[in-house]
Amino acid sequence: MNLFSPLTLRQLTLKNRIVVSPMQQYSAKNGIPGNWHLVHLGGRAVGGAGLIMTECTAVSPEGLATLSDVGIWNDEQKDAWKNIVDFVHEQDAKIGMQLWHSGGKGSLKHPNEKMKPLPKEEGGWTVKSSSPTEMNGVIPEELTVDEIQELKVKFVEASHRAVEAGFDTIELHAGHGYLFHQFYSAVINKRNDEYGGSLQNRIRFLVETVGEVRRSIPDGMPLLVRISAVDYLETPDAWTLDDSIILAKILRENGVDLITASGGGFANVSKDRVFPNYQVPFSSTIRQQTGIATGAVGMITEAVQANDIIVNDEADLIFIAREHLRDPYFALHSAKELELEVEIPWQYKRAF
Ligand SMILES: Cc1cc2nc3c(=O)[nH]c(=O)nc-3n(C[C@H](O)[C@H](O)[C@H](O)COP(=O)(O)O)c2cc1C
After folding, report:
1. Which ligand 1 atom is nearest residue 279's CA?
2. Is 178 a catalytic residue?
3. How far is the CA of 123 from the centre of ligand 1 (A)?
4. For atom 1 of ligand 1, which residue has the closest CA?
5. pLDDT value at position 352?
6. DSSP 8-state secondary structure symbol assigned to residue 221
7. Catalytic residue among 178, 195, 232, 329
8. Is 322's C-beta closer than 6 angstroms to any atom of ligand 1?
9. What is the DSSP string of 50-70?
């Protein structure tokens, strides 16, 4: 077993363990992915990664963070995604869509304008969350129980469109301080109803959505969830790795096939906590304690480093984000470094 061993989840087989981690490009108009996304995602498929993940893709306009994020709440968006999916498939790679709602972290300006709150007259909207807890200087409105039910429907509708566009897998983005995380972490969730209070209540929105999405996508399609395994906060209400283990067991029982163990989202993580493999212990602990397949992510930048995580049984997939921006051919370069045979795109064979 190594970085280039295939992995089968349900009826999906990935040719290797290297994943292009979701990365927002802030380059869309009306939620529609364009040429940039085709080249960005397609280029990394040419580069040999087994699974290409889209950036976080909003299930509704209110689920965007900025007006430059991508979405999949209408057919125009779906058709644009299909073009990208087809190209990735032509490269013998698989592609997954990360579905997402920003909750209280929405209605922001573009990063080039420092992601300041977007005023209503420039297209901004009222952001809503589990509770009116301040996030980045904004106090969201509290979602009603009816609105929570409507949100689950949005995720189901978006999943249908992703399946129709030809995606091989779906990942729910339940980390990084976005809407699902705003429910399961007591740092934000201060509700007193069935969606707040106990851990069981706080994870309810995610678990119910997982159940409904699972039932609405083909049985052979794996369902992935990205969580923040910890909040990286010391307060008594912070989400912990022990909480993540409980959550992972329940997600597994509800048909989730793989959990990517990321972290944080409500506060800047201090620099001394970020170092190579810094989140691998989350992945390996969740994997050992629950038996679910896991993805490791965070400061994994080298072939030998990534290979060791697989060889040591610490994760099933390696999600590589920033190194893929520096090197779209990370997978092909890794195979060469590890002296493993892989298929090179025929157009490029003369160079490898
Ligand atoms: C430009 C950029 C955009 C990102 N966008 C997303 C995203 O859309 N969804 C997500 O789950 N994580 C996102 N992330 C986080 C990465 O997927 C990854 O978890 C993080 O960068 C750590 O991995 P790395 O050290 O390999 O970069 C983004 C990271 C970067 C650098």
Report:
1. 22
2. yes
3. 26
4. 23
5. 82
6. S
7. 178
8. yes
9. SEEEEEEEESSGGG-SBTTSE
- Encoded tokens for 230: 């910890």
Q: Are strands 7-9 and 12-14 parallel, antiparallel or unpaired?
A: antiparallel
Longest dimension (CA), the chain: 64
> What separation, in Å, do the N-terminal and C-terminal C-alpha atoms of the chain show?
24
Ligand 1 atom showing the smallest separation from residue 55 Cα? 8
Say if residues 195 and 206 touch (Cβ distance below 8 Å). Answer: no
Q: Which CATH number fits domain 17-342: 3.50.50.60, 3.20.20.70, 3.30.565.10, 3.40.50.960?
A: 3.20.20.70
Residues (pLDDT < 70) of the chain are: none
> DSSP secondary-structure letter at 265?
-
Helices (H) and strands (E) in the chain — how many of each? 11, 13
Rounded Cα distance, 135 and 67, in Å: 19
Closest approach atom of ligand 1 to CA 262: 19
- The reply to whether ligand 1 has any atom less than 6 angstroms from the CB of 295 is no
